[in-house]
Amino acid sequence: MILVYDYMANGTLHDHLYKMKKPSLSWTRRLTICIGAARGLHYLHTGSKHSIIHHDVKRRVDQIIDPYVQGKIDPTSLRTFTDMARKCLGEKGSERPTMGEVLWNLEQAWLQQQQNDCFQNDGNYG
After folding, report:
1. Which of 7, 21, 45, 73 has the fewest CB atoms in 10 Å of its CB?
2. Measured distance CA(65)–CA(87) in Å, rounded
3. What is the spatial distance between Cα 77 and Cα 75, in angstroms, rounded to a whole number?
4. Averaged pLDDT, 4-30
5. Considering only 11-15, 58-62, 71-75, 114-118, which range has the smallest mean pLDDT?
6. Tens digit of each residue's pLDDT (9 = 90 or more) over 33-80
7. What backbone phi and psi angles, to 5 degrees, belong to 94?
8. What is the DSSP track for the chain?
């Protein structure tokens, strides 16, 4: 099986997170991207009839948080997100969560962030 990717005219996720010339991504958008990546990896590991070889997707935890973030992230959402990221970096496979667990936890963090964004937009968050 060969994966073919569309051309991404807006650049990479790395560009948006780390390069000053790219617009900053909201935390809701970041969580949406993470959930999409988790769903894709979950499919690669469990949903395909054939074995799929892919490159290692690990990243350092300190790269998750952008020092130029404008806006707020819900503390509960951030805690869920960073705890899951740390667990995914376990040395032994038996220490790491399944992709289903990662997906569920990221979806919970995303829902929490959406609720927080609604409060901010209503002016009721404080």
Report:
1. 7
2. 16
3. 5
4. 68
5. 58-62
6. 777 777 766 766 676 565 555 555 544 333 333 344 434 556 677 777
7. -70, -20
8. --------TT--HHHHHH-TTSPPPPHHHHHHHHHHHHHHHHIIIII-SS----------GGGSS-TT--S---HHHHHHHHHHHHHHT-SSGGGSPPHHHHHHHHHHHHHHHHHHHHHHHHT---
Which of these is catalytic: 6, 56, 62, 122? 56
Q: Is 74 a catalytic residue?
A: no
Contacting residues for 29 by C-beta, under 8 A, at least 6 apart: none
- Tell me which residue has tokens 């469990």: 46
Enumerate residues 6+ apart whose C-beta is below 8 A from 56.
Answer: none
CA 7 to chain centre: 21
Give CA–CA dist 35/69, Å, rounded: 19
